[in-house]
């Protein structure tokens, strides 16, 4: 009972404070509402003027010209074999490397740096190109998983003999690869891959970099083929486009995309400072998986599954999917209305609301800290008033005042956001004011001088 008697007395004290400084209290109450009212006034005055009228965005239906066809694994093999020559642009004065477009190079196994070229016609394959390897590992230590790894390696050797120059015949049909280490490397486990890339020798001549890896599991049945692709999430294929280190260049496959994004580029566009990944990476989500090789290697594994299960011969013949037979296209988008007013004012709405809250929040901080500064809190403790009663009295007094201000702000904002539910606006403002009040208590706990606390808060 002593707690409630103290709380009641402190609430009455805070109410007397409000009555004594009624002019300041009116400003604390009105300023947040006025900030929202200013936005409403701006909307009413300009929403039908030129540049602020709503625009109807028509639906999009993509055609064959918008189809994305990624490189096949055979294209990757060809890129590994190709000879790279430095070429000097006679007009721009910069070097390029033959067969490679530095702005759209989707092969993660071949990376050449044209900035290192010194003369026209110079061989870049050995000097300025880096060739990454392809890893394969079992998902566990079971015999079934190892059997599938062996089958996958046999498939690669059968379908792409160019990757194994030592096994080619003497007719000279298979060109040598421009590096002296095996392109396909078998690892004992996924942990073995981790140890490989974390090695201090990683990237040296004896330990070439890993482009990507496939981890094959055993499966619960003969037709169950679990596998995972281990990609470099910070990979970029053209060294000339390097930017902020360790920038994410490929979204996670379990990422939840923005439900309100109007286009794919809005849903998963790379962040600022990311190396340039090619034009497709900025147009669609799947473009980022193309540039890092995920879709191409996924297609390779799926082709192996058809080969390993015998599905290729189910009709009595060699039924395979053509190398570039898998194509990608974005889903159509429906029509929507884009309001010119909200697009123009969106950056200023938070600013005006914050300006409206500056004075009320500063007044809250000053009220709490001045109680400590004037030693009133210590005096009340000497009179057996608990810290809990003091803290709850300030919380109830301040939030009841902010609650009413938030209520009127939501009523005013209903005219600003005509398509929003008033209840949601009410919850938004009340929760925002509650968060602001929590900030007030944090600042007040760190200072014993009112002026200093207001300046910091």
UniProtKB/TrEMBL annotation:
Molecular-function GO terms, alphabetical: ABC-type transporter activity; lipid transporter activity
Chief location bin: membrane
Cellular component GO terms held in the UniProt record: membrane
Places the protein is found: Membrane
Record's protein name: ABC-2 type transporter transmembrane domain-containing protein
Presence of keyword Ribonucleoprotein: no
Xref: PANTHER family: ATP-BINDING CASSETTE SUB-FAMILY A MEMBER 2 (PTHR19229:SF36), ATP-BINDING CASSETTE TRANSPORTER SUBFAMILY A ABCA (PTHR19229)
Key words of the record: Membrane, Repeat, Transmembrane, Transmembrane helix, Transport
Protein topology in the membrane: Multi-pass membrane protein
Record-annotated membrane-spanning stretches: 21-42, 348-369, 390-417, 423-447
Protein origin, superkingdom: Eukaryota
Domain spans labelled ABC-2 type transporter transmembrane: 26-455
